[in-house]
UniProtKB/TrEMBL annotation:
Keyword check for Iron: yes
Keywords from the named record: 2Fe-2S, Iron, Iron-sulfur, Metal-binding, Oxidoreductase
InterPro entries: 2Fe-2S-bd (IPR002888), 2Fe-2S-bd_dom_sf (IPR036884), 2Fe-2S_ferredoxin-like_sf (IPR036010), 2Fe-2S_ferredoxin-type (IPR001041), 2Fe2S_fd_BS (IPR006058), Beta-grasp_dom_sf (IPR012675), Diverse_Oxidoreductases (IPR051452)
Region (Disordered): 159-182
Gene3D superfamilies in alphabetical order: 3.10.20.30, [2Fe-2S]-binding domain (1.10.150.120)
Protein name, as recorded: (2Fe-2S)-binding protein
Domain 2Fe-2S ferredoxin-type, chain residue ranges per copy: 2-76
Amino acid sequence: MPRMTVNGRPVEYLMEPDTPLLWALRDASNLTGTKYGCGVGDCGACMVHVDGEALRSCLITIAEAEGRFVTTIEALSRDRSHPVQQALVAEQAIQCGFCTPGIAMAASALLERNSAPSEAEIVAAIPNLCRCGVYPRLIRAIERAGRVARREETISAAPAPGISAEDAARRVPAITPPTDAE
């Protein structure tokens, strides 16, 4: 059975070796940030890092990923502090959000190789389809993430990592039904 390291943890998938990595990640590892978009490598929604390279996980089998290091959006940064994640939010380059994990993975791989890419290099490195059409803002976000990575700029606040239980609901006294005497 294929073994690899996923988000820093060793994993052995008890699945057929020709299973696409996408389905192993989503179904066996419950890493659902990696999205199923088209299944044929056209949309990029399933982009992950394999040994640091952005690859479409629908096109690579778990046998081909054996012995390799796989990183999904869940491990890009646990607190959403990665420059790409912060810049996508700051530049409002997220609409419905379905394509965002794949775009973030492609962009972060690009910035690892080249922290100051040109617009043409960004366009070439981000093959992802976004049906909401955020491309101009996406380019600005990746340029900004590069500046943050180069420490030329900071983004004032990270997006909230989630809502705490205390903020999501508060305890109130139980409501008691009226008695017959009332």
